[in-house]
Design goal:
heterodimer; A: 353 residues; mainly alpha; ABC transporter involved in vitamin B12 uptake, BtuC; two-stranded antiparallel sheet; 4 strands; B: 276 residues; alpha/beta; four-stranded antiparallel beta sheet; ATP-binding cassette domain-containing protein (chain B); AAA+_ATPase (chain B); P-loop_NTPase (chain B); ABC_transporter-like_CS (chain B)
């Protein structure tokens, strides 16, 4: 249903033959495949969860170190940055948009935080606020271009990605800012909480907390329902009295704040702020969202799915490297997963009533 | 014409231009209490522009819309909704991935009471589902079992029923329906026509835009014919034939050539009754 992000999303769906006899099943009893399709259509996160489970079982068989507490902690730490970043990306994709500037915004925010602390000597909390303001402003710019000048999000964020990245290089003068020069608060997200043998960072905990907060906002508030409606059937949302432009602007700003939060997690994880960090993160965040069962056409998907998607990537990379497989094959595996996930999404969307 | 019933909704001299194209050239419309007013017209006659002006989707360049004689400015769908005008839009009415209750309350969700509602802005899904059920029952829509079902699992007619139920539930003054049967099969059209009659029975006047003459003549109390951007006549479907209506619509016959009884500028007997 590629037409669902156009203005007339469901024209042509009303074939008279299919609806004049609503009580009679169209083509005999559904096959097993039909049933699988229907269940996956109703439960967007089921497929990704099954994939994650299979991956975990497979790698547990291949390597006995895989399921050790230390390794699981490592995967969670490795996933925290991409996972949190992808949460912001999920908000944008739910509105049938896409954000190519995620990585650039995150790096820019991390540089703003680090320099506000190291150069300007601002206290930790103020340096954080500066970073969050930066994230919100980046979101405001993207959102304004999308809603006021009506440019496609792909183009807007392709352009702003370069702008933000250039700003980041200018602001950092291309130099990495060491953790020892910053307020310890900026590095706090990398601190470790030990529960039994599992060592979680505050960053990973923040990611999980954000899942709960965003999940609540998307499913328990009118704002969240409107986000889905705007991505699913924009014109219907507008005609229902939803101020779609204002809504989209709020989504882009919220995403910007999520990227700023990710910048904080990134500084804690790396222990410094580097202008070169996170260059690959744009596409990896989209990968996580797509693997998590969120549709690129908008209006369909769950915030939890994105974390599952990020974990699928994390688990595959970690498991393959434990198995001694070269990095290039990890990339290949992730690439195959993405294509399969999108193909699956297309198929699920064709579900028969 | 000889009646005192005041129109619920009226439009005077609406003009809307798109560049050099004039969609509305001084269009009028009156809707009286308790009636179904059909709006017919050829493609490009300004039907949709007229309806969009009344539902707040576009703002006319000039002209006036009144609700119960009071001028209103319908600058957005929300403004029209606040004025008590609900519209069932053609095929764009619902968000398919959301459930029925959410669709019914889209844009006017119910929040929980207390701090949960005011501070954390938590929605009251339970109450919305219960009320959705009640609104569907009100219109006798029994084929829909579960308001938690997502709309895409419904048939075309059931989707339209959800849209109609939503309009009937929140429209205080007027329900506008734009081609509600256009995409439906015979049996489903039948069900939607019955729904329209039930909305009228609830006391809400209805504006029905349709290309389908048999449907129009079956349910309408009066037929507003739109031609070249303005109203050319209001016909009485009890006296007129479908052929007359088509002839007036295409300009083959001038309304002046029809007998006076075929015209229905003022409220009809049914409407007068409903008002009294």
């Amino acid at each position: 249903m590629t037409a669902s992000n156009s203005l007339t999303p469901h024209r042509g769906e009303h074939e008279p033959g299919a609806i004049t006899e609503p009580d009679v099943p169209g083509s005999g009893t559904p096959t097993l495949l039909d049933r699988v399709q229907r269940v996956m259509h109703a439960q967007a996160t089921l497929g990704p969860a099954v994939v994650l489970l299979i991956a975990v079982i497979a790698f547990a068989i291949v390597s006995d170190r895989f399921l050790s507490a230390a390794n699981i902690s490592l995967i969670l730490q490795q996933t925290a940055v991409i996972g949190t970043l992808a949460l912001g990306q999920t908000l944008i994709i739910l509105t049938a948009g896409i954000d190519l500037s995620v990585g650039a915004v995150m790096v820019l925010c991390s540089i703003v935080m680090a320099r506000a602390s190291s150069e300007l000597g601002l206290p930790g909390p103020l340096a954080l606020v500066a970073g969050f303001v930066c994230g919100a402003l980046c979101g405001l710019l993207n959102g304004t271009l999308v809603t006021r000048i009506k440019l496609p999000p792909f183009i807007v964020t392709l352009g702003s990605m370069n702008i933000f990245f250039a700003l980041n290089l200018w602001l950092s003068r291309g130099e990495t800012i060491r953790g020892s020069d910053m307020s310890p608060l900026l590095l706090w997200t990398g601190r470790v909480i030990t529960i039994g043998d599992t060592r979680l960072t505050y960053g990973s905990v923040m990611m999980l907390a954000l899942v709960a907060v965003l999940g609540y906002c998307l499913h328990r508030t009118a704002w969240g329902r409107h986000v889905y409606a705007a991505g699913d059937a924009r014109e219907a949302a507008r005609l229902s009295g939803i101020r779609v432009d204002r809504l989209l602007l709020s989504v882009y700003i919220t995403a910007g704040l999520v990227y700023a939060l990710t910048a904080w997690i990134l500084i804690g994880r790396v222990g410094s702020a580097s202008p070169q960090a996170g260059i690959m993160n744009n596409l990896e965040s989209i990968t996580a969202v797509v693997l998590g069962g969120t549709s690129l056409f908008g209006g369909r998907g769950l915030i939890v799915g994105t974390i599952v998607g990020a974990l699928i990537v994390g688990v595959c990379r970690n498991g393959l490297s434990l198995a001694g497989v070269d990095v290039l094959w990890q990339d290949l595996a992730v690439g195959v997963l993405v294509i399969v996930a999108v193909a699956l999404d297309q198929w699920i969307r064709k579900v028969r009533r | 014409m000889n009646d005192t019933a005041e129109p619920v909704l009226s439009a005077h001299g609406l003009v809307k231009r798109y560049g050099s194209v004039t969609a509305l050239a001084g269009a009028d419309l009156e809707l009286y209490p308790g009636e179904i007013l059909a709006v017919i017209g050829d493609n490009g006659a300004g039907k949709s522009s007229l309806i969009k002006c009344l539902s707040g989707a576009i703002t006319p360049d000039s002209g006036e819309v009144r609700v119960h004689g009071r001028p209103v400015r319908l600058t957005s769908p929300i403004a029209a909704r606040d004025a008590g005008i609900e519209t069932v839009h053609q095929s764009l009415a619902v968000a398919p991935s959301l459930d029925i209750a959410t669709n019914l309350f889209l844009g006017r969700e119910l929040r929980r009471g207390g701090l949960l509602g005011s501070v954390s802005r938590s929605l009251d899904h339970g109450r919305m589902r219960a009320e959705a059920r009640r609104h569907l029952d009100d219109l006798g829509i029994m084929t829909i079992q579960n308001p938690k079902q997502s709309v895409e699992t419904l048939s075309g007619g059931q989707r339209q029923a959800v849209a109609v139920a939503r309009a009937a539930a929140f429209g205080n003054e007027v329900v506008i329906m734009d081609e509600p049967t256009a995409a439906l099969g015979v049996r489903e059209s039948r069900a939607v026509l019955d729904l329209i009659l039930r909305v009228r029975a609830k006391g809400l006047p209805v504006i029905l835009i349709s290309h389908n003459m048999p449907h129009v003549f079956e349910v309408a109390d009066r037929v507003h014919v739109q031609r070249l951007g303005r109203r050319t006549a209001c016909l009485n479907p009890a006296v007129c034939t479908m052929a007359d209506a088509v002839a007036v619509m295409t300009g083959a016959v001038s309304p002046d050539d029809l007998p006076a009884s075929a015209l229905a500028q003022g409220p009809t007997a049914a409407a007068r009754q409903a008002d009294g």
